[in-house]
Write a structure and sequence with these properties.
This protein is of the alpha/beta class. It has eight helices and twelve strands.
């Protein structure tokens, strides 16, 4: 199966640097989204599927550290590479300790940046994670596609995030707030809203929307994906 294009979010307020990175990445067939403020970056990560973030720290609305800390509050695995004009050891240590995966200083070599991007994506997309199969459910992590009984079924970005979060924690009950924080971020949704999404997911996974065979509700606790032989 051919790998899908990786999605990279560039958070950078310098237009020249932004265009330089964007044009090079697009030439290499990466899917690129660009924003110029910290809040736009966080909002994009909450609403969309992102494979890697390139982040400047000196942003006009909030410091780039806000992006690292906020993203890490709901996603521990999304690679973040800082590309910043801050060259002090203290700045690098603070960013790495906050959860950044790598740190490059400006001016930078595009060839080196591309090599570091490839490294982080290799670390994230290991061979064993390409496909997840459980009963009649198959998740293709590369193509960001879900199949039910061998047929591709459309899931929204939020639905995909919920299903993969449950799949990655197979057999474990995830608390309502835990799911909400990892999918939408803090204050991004409430339990009633989550229930609506779960009802939609169940309808797509099974013709019987009341079936709890694959995804079970532990009343008062949360949701769990069961292992199906």
């Amino acid at each position: 199966m051919e790998k899908a294009t990786r999605s990279i979010l560039v958070i950078e307020d310098d237009k020249a640097t932004l265009n330089k990175i964007k044009n090079q990445l697009k030439e290499l067939n990466y899917k690129v989204a660009c924003v110029m403020t910290a809040q736009e970056g966080v909002d994009y990560c909450i609403k969309n599927i992102v494979d890697l973030i390139l982040l400047d720290l000196g942003l006009p609305d909030k410091d780039g550290m806000y992006v690292i800390e906020t993203v890490r509050s709901f996603n521990n695995t999304l690679p973040i590479i800082v590309v910043s004009g801050r060259t002090t050891t203290e700045s690098k240590v603070l960013a790495l300790d906050a959860g950044a995966n790598d740190y490059m200083t400006k001016p930078f070599s595009m060839d080196e940046l591309l090599a570091r991007i490839r490294k982080e994506l290799r670390n994230t997309y290991t061979e064993e994670k390409h496909l997840f199969i459980n009963g009649n459910l198959t998740i293709d992590y590369d193509a960001k596609t879900i199949f039910v009984n061998g047929v591709e079924v459309h899931f929204t970005n939020f639905e995909f995030k919920i299903v993969t979060l449950l799949a990655n924690n197979l057999g474990k009950t995830l608390a309502y707030d835990y799911i909400i924080n990892h999918v939408w971020g803090k204050d991004g949704q409430d339990q009633n809203g989550l229930r609506v999404f779960m009802a939609g997911i169940r309808k797509k996974i099974s013709r019987d929307p009341k079936s709890a065979k694959l995804i079970r509700t532990d009343i008062g606790s949360g949701y769990r994906m069961n292992k199906i032989n």
